[in-house]
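Troubleshooting entry. The earlier prediction with XIL gave an output that would not parse, so I re-checked the input for stray whitespace and re-submitted. Clean input:
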Amino acid sequence: SHALRAHAEARGLLVGCAVVPEKLSSEPAYANVVASQCNLLVPENAMKWKALRPAPDKFDFRGGDAILAFAQAHRQRVRGHNLCWHEALPDWFAATVNKSNAREILERHIQTVAGHYSGKLHSWDVVNEAIDPASTRPDSLRSSPWLDFIGPGYIEIAFRAARKADPSALLTYNDYSIEFDSPEQVKKRDAVLRLVKHLRSRNVPIDAIGVQSHLDAAAGLPGNGLRDFVRELHRMGLQVFVTELDINDKKLPADIAARDASVARIYRDYLTMMLAEPNVTALLTWGITDRYTWLDAPKYGRADALPERPLPFDPNYRPAPAFFAERDAI
Ligand code: XIL
């Protein structure tokens, strides 16, 4: 077979992408490519607080449930993303959550959401993006409502609550800009490692690290630091997931064939490096078709406003060079 999932299944790997539930039901071409290529799905936004929590006392599981139903119909696993993050918080959050109730609200959210999906998910991103290399704290934790209201113990609280609510999901810490060997990214990666060791020393349940892998086509490949990091995690018994791979081509000239070739080269070399490590067990791209990518937002996109080409399928669902590179690397 020529599909990513067939290649992945032949070697026991999970492969897939971030999905939008509305498109699974309304756009057959989108549903077809997701069904045929993926054996692992993650909601791009549907399981974030903003989507799940329309009001302080309300939970809306429709988007997440639709993704789970699609996945079950197509023999696919699902990752949850995410239980605790400083972004995508609902509008009511700021006026409602404070120092005296934050812990209870976080624990109740995790108990309810991870409880709703208990036994059905491959994994959860329990805490997303907690570290900021610009932080002046010794643990490099990012300022966020969770840190500010609960203190650094919020991470441990979240992981313990997740294990309690769903004992079978692999519990993940997920972060970005930890792939390269620049001083800033080395600092961030080291802080992630220290966090994992700290959690382990306190018997906090954690099973995997998510390396988001939002890469830049002009930056080339990471050095050896990432591979060493993956190996150190392996020695600690942790899995590693490539959770949000896409390759921003905003710094490259407009020519499509040249951009596609650069993006595909990074797919090939990055994934060949990562998938050679036995504890790298899952690979997700952040979308599947260039028709829908968060990188086209003005904030992230190209100065010439041309559509980005960061994903394995082009805007018309034709496999791009990145698709063949990804498949070959699997
Ligand atoms: C992004 C989504 O792709 C966008 O649609 C949304 O507007 C903002 O969030 N790191 C993460 C993801 O962990 O949740 C982010 O997803 C991309 C960066």
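This one parsed fine. The domain at 4-329 is CATH 3.20.20.80 (TIM Barrel).
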